[in-house]
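#onboarding

Welcome to the new folks! Below is a worked example of what a typical request in this channel looks like: someone posts a single protein sequence, and someone else replies with the predicted structure as tokens. Don't worry about understanding the tokens yet, we'll cover that in week two.

Example request:
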Amino acid sequence: MPPKHFLTSNFRIAFEEYFDADQQRNAVETLKGHIEEVRDGTEEQRRELGVLKPQDKTPEQIEQRVAAYLDKCYWQLSQFYRYSVPCRISEAEPYLREIIRYAKAKGGKRDIAPDLFLAVAIHKQPGKVQEAISLFTDAFNEFDDNETLALGPRSELWARAHWARLLRRVERVQDAQVQERAIVDWIVEHPMVLPAPKLMALVSDEADGGILNGILNHPEVLAAFENARERSPRRI
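Example response:
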């Protein structure tokens, strides 16, 4: 059983920022093992694990509690796969599909992050390119039209970059340029939000045929960085 803080955002940040490759792999395997324990366990075992609460008595209550808990585990594991070095997001596909299925069954406000994670996870797989394009298109259309949707800049830039590369691979160059333009515009408008190494890690790829690998040398980006440095208070 993983420690209680294993599913927290602080642990996820530590996974990305401080864990070495072995620690990341161990965390992934630990969480996968815990998911199997919960998914396949008996009611007694689930109570011992702390998944079920004392008030969970009826089969419906138990089912709902377990489903919600597994959903949280699936999302944390998907993020572990994303932030692993090297990235292992393709392995998150089955968990992301469960997250999306659960969200649709539960209803309520849509979270587009799992859709975008799934699009990135499958966009290089033969036979799933069109599904990935549809996921990217639907999610970003909703995001661009709805300012209330929550999607952090790192997830947005990371997903847009993958979408742009996919569009170039299927020879939709003009559509790819629209996404590349959106990335440049974001950086120009927010030059001090993310350090240069983080930006490169989010948007670059050795196989990229567009502008993203040289994003830090883009004239508009260079100008935005320079203006931001000139405006920032100087230390005495």
